[in-house]
Amino acid sequence: MNYGFVRIATAIPGVKVGDCKYNAQQIESLIIQAEGKGVEIICFPELSITAYTCGDLFAQQLLLDEAEMCLISILDFTRSLDIISIIGLPVAYHGTLLNCAAVIQKGKILGLIPKTYLPNYKEFYEQRWFTSGDVHGNSNVLVCGQMVPLSRHLVFNTPSCCFGVEICEDVWAPIPPSSELVLQGAEIIFNLSADNEGVGKQDYLKSLLAQQSARCLAGYVFSGAGFGESTQDVVFAGKALIYENGMLLAENERFSFKEQLVYSEIDVECLRAERRVNTTFSASIARLRPHDTMRIDTELFASKDIELSRKVDPMPFVPAGKTLNERCEEIFAIQIAGLAKRLVHTQTQTVVIGISGGLDSTLALLVCTKTFDKLGLSRKGIVGVTMPGFGTTNRTYTNAVNLMKSLGVTLREISIKKSCIQHFEDLGFDMANHNVTYENAQARERTQILMDVANQMNGMVVGTGDLSELALGWATYNGDHMSMYGVNASIPKTLVKHLVKWVADSIIDEPSQATLLDIVDTPISPELIPADENGNISQKTEDLVGPYALHDFFLYYTLRFGFRPSKIFYLAQYAFAGKYTDEVIKKWLTTFFRRFFSQQFKRSCLPDGPKVGSCSLSPRGDWRMPSDASAAAWMDECNNLQA
After folding, report:
1. Confidence (pLDDT) at 303
2. How far is CA 65 from CA 97, 161, 413, in A?
3. Which residues contact 501 (CB under 8 A, 6 or more apart)?
4. Cα–Cα distance for residue pair 323/203, rounded to 1 Å
5. Letter string b/e over residues 119-148, b meaning 16 or more CB atoms within 10 A of that residue's CB
6. What letter would DSSP give residue 580?
7. d(CA 260, CA 513)
8. pLDDT, position 300
């Protein structure tokens, strides 16, 4: 499909117990619906041709013959279709009855996967009728006039992905078959199930599937029996769930009385990227018990160019809903713990921090205050230095001063204007020229002041720069780039704002809260260029380097999955549809990669700082990149994007 996305579906047909012809018709109807939506692989529930709740009818030859004849009917129906279908039915073999999944395409049975673990406790009596597939190992069985491989170790190769199959109880086992299938190459697991309802069981099941999907670095597609199954002793509500590496992509409405088709796209390229960098996964492959894995190639077919149905989050660093507050609390605790260790190790009771009235320095100051509180140190040991310059506005200056006062830290004000003017005179520099020298001289002067105050007070400088600035190199080398410990170093700008707001709403006094909320609403700026005629900020960072929402999106998919620019552009088109045009996205994506490569030298000598999430640019941790790497291939792809 597009950029590694594979559209798959899980179907919940209506069934009649023992009526194979009716059930086959429902299956065919859903197959044709899925084919029309560009689905490549569709999965049906366990024993979907007969229904799961046939009980002792499974011992009736008529039912078994009917099931086989109806599978022949479905094979004929799909003879001209590209879609791969996975259907459940009983299969008699060598004096046993097996609960199987049949993988079919274009009129052929590609393979049969027997159920491994047969529940025989409480409401389940499967061993009364069926035999575990382990009894036969790898075999061949004649079904529907075709000689078909039969094994739980079947792995299917399609033009777009590799998949495996397990059945219901298998995933509840301590070591599910899917754990071995993924180590044998399967990227997506399909589970044909007949999972009955019970109070609280749905939450447990979803947790189980999410964990299995995440542990296996795989897609996981679950199809559970629904309306029409016998309710003699239990109820089947129909469960359709699609996961990708622990993330729920799509689910159905349980207890529906109608057939349902749920589909989404699994990003197989993303899964492959995760596996490549996860050395534990490769080590597990080496420890896999030897099996006679059978690899089956499906029919070739052209991938369909379709629109993504899954949501692409424009804020991948910022969780939605109630999770956001929980995440903010955890991140804040990590920052505090990191700084606390450094203070205890250095036996330092004084920190120096530059306070500008902006988001980053505000967050760093809040971390310092809570760290001192937790260590039982006086907040007077936190020296906040506000350093008005040529671009400082009354709004940011007032917020900086008010915040330091309300938090009870030591406040120092040291203007940089006189020293910078003297410096410019010494250089013979025209101050009317507001170029990079004009800006960097101010940034370095501020850093020099902070370092000297720290020396004067036997303290350490706490850095304020964030992950987004490091990615873009939006920091003055040996200026705000430098400190003794950078508490914000792995927090992206889009998350900094939420962290400050979370503190304002959750754990701060009322006077400080008012100031924090105004800081959150203040435009992001280094304030190195004089204000406009109305005293407002004239130098807005996002006007110069681009929206941080876009850059954080680009950064996430570059660091987390190593996606190429064209795929990031493709995803951004969905994530920011209606907000940014394709031309705007292309412009700032090109800027991102140009700056990301050219500014690596700043990241190669970063101060220490705590990692808080899945992405970090520390040269000692997650990101080891040569400062002189060529960006040519990335820039060529950016330039060739069709906006």
Report:
1. 66
2. 13, 33, 89
3. 516, 517, 520
4. 17
5. eeeeeeebeebbbbbeebeebebebbeeeb
6. S
7. 49
8. 80
Beta-sheet pairing, 239-244 with 247-251: antiparallel
The two three-digit tokens of residue 119, written as one number: 């529940």
In the prediction, which pLDDT does 536 show?
A: 74
Please give the pLDDT value at position 543.
82
Q: Which residue positions in the chain have pLDDT lower than 70?
A: 1, 290, 302-304, 526-528, 537-538
In whole angstroms, give the CA distance from residue 476 to residue 441: 9
Instruction: Region of 246 please: left (phi>0), alpha (psi -120 to 50) or beta.
Output: left
Burial (CB < 10 A; 0-12, 13-18, 19+), residue 272, is middle
Distance separating alpha carbons of residues 325 and 323, to the nearest angstrom: 6
DSSP for 590-620, please give it. HHHHHHHHHTHHHHTTPPP----SS----TT
Count other C-beta atoms under 10 Å from residue 337's C-beta. 13
Q: What is the DSSP string of 26-74?
A: HHHHHHHHHHHTT-SEEE--TTTTT-GGGGGGGG-HHHHHHHHHHHHHH
**Which residues does the annotation mark as catalytic?**
46, 115, 168
- Which tokens belong to 417? 């204007």
d(CA 560, CA 424): 43
Half-sphere exposure of residue 127, counting CA atoms within 13 Å on the CB side?
9
pLDDT given for residue 510 in this prediction: 86
Contact yes or no for 473/599 (Cβ under 8 A): yes
- Listed in sequence order, the residues at least 6 apart from 519 whose beta carbon sits closer than 8 Å to its beta carbon are 357, 358, 359, 362, 399, 403, 500
71 burial via Cβ count (<10 Å: 0-12, 13-18, 19+)? buried
CB atoms within 10 A of CB 151: 21
Q: What is the pLDDT of residue 288?
A: 79
Q: Which of 292, 281, 43 is nearest to 153 (CA)?
A: 292
Helix (H, G, I), strand (E, B) or coil at 98: strand
pLDDT per residue over 495-528, tens digit each? 999 999 999 998 888 889 999 999 999 888 766 6
Number of C-beta neighbours around residue 468 at 10 A = 26
Please name the residues in contact with 506: beta carbons below 8 A apart, sequence gap of 6 or more.
Answer: 325, 329
| Contact predicate 239/254, CB 8 Å | yes
Give dist(CA 156, CA 162) in Å, integer.
Answer: 5
Distance CA 394, CA 531 (A): 10
- 0.70 surpassed by pTM: yes
For residues 323 and 312, give the distance between their C-alpha atoms in angstroms, rounded to a whole number.
18
Measured distance CA(413)–CA(397) in Å, rounded:
10
**pLDDT score for 528:** 66
